Amino acid sequence: MEAIKKDFEIKIEKNMPIPEKYTKSKYTSMFNNMDVGDSIRVNIKDGERIIATAYATRRKLKEKYISRKIAEKYVRIWRTK
């Protein structure tokens, strides 16, 4: 048991404040305002983060989004349901 303590040290701290709950992505409100058939074009480097937000929104609101790479630099995301 003593060997475990040497490799794994945890300090118990009391009265630590709990941080605020994670806030929504800045893209969530954009997806909430999209109607079926609407689409957005985003830079491919931001695409992964924005697509993740679209799919998280989809699960919560029963909406459906589809994404496709267009050209070399862009991703387009459509709301389909």
How would you describe the overall organization of this protein?
With about 80 residues, the chain is α+β, with helices and mostly antiparallel strands. It has a domain at about 30-80. The protein contains 3 helices and 3 strands. The protein has helices at about 1-5, 30, 45-60; strands spanning about 40-45, 65-70, 75-80. It has a 3-stranded antiparallel sheet with strand order 1-3-2, with helices on one face. A hairpin with a 3-residue loop joins strand 2 (about 65-70) and strand 3 (about 75-80). The mean pLDDT is about 80.
Q: What does this entry show, briefly?
A:
The protein is elongated.
Which helices and strands appear, and what pairs or packs with what?
Blueprint: H1 2-7, H2 28-32, E1 39-43, H3 44-61, E2 65-70, E3 74-79
Antiparallel strand pairs: 1-3, 2-3
Question: Keyphrases for this structure?
Answer:
single chain; alpha+beta
Question: Which parts are unreliable, with pLDDT below 50 for 5 consecutive residues or more?
Answer: none
Helix proportion range? 25-40%
Gyration radius, in Å: 21 Å
Judged by helices, strands and strand pairing, the structural class is: alpha+beta
Strand content: 15-25%
- Overall mean pLDDT score? 81
Shape: elongated
Strand order of the largest sheet: 1-3-2
SSE order, one letter for each helix or strand: HHEHEE
**Beta strand count:** 3
Oligomer: single chain
- Main pleated-sheet profile: 3 strands, antiparallel
N-to-C span:
57 Å
Number of helices: 3
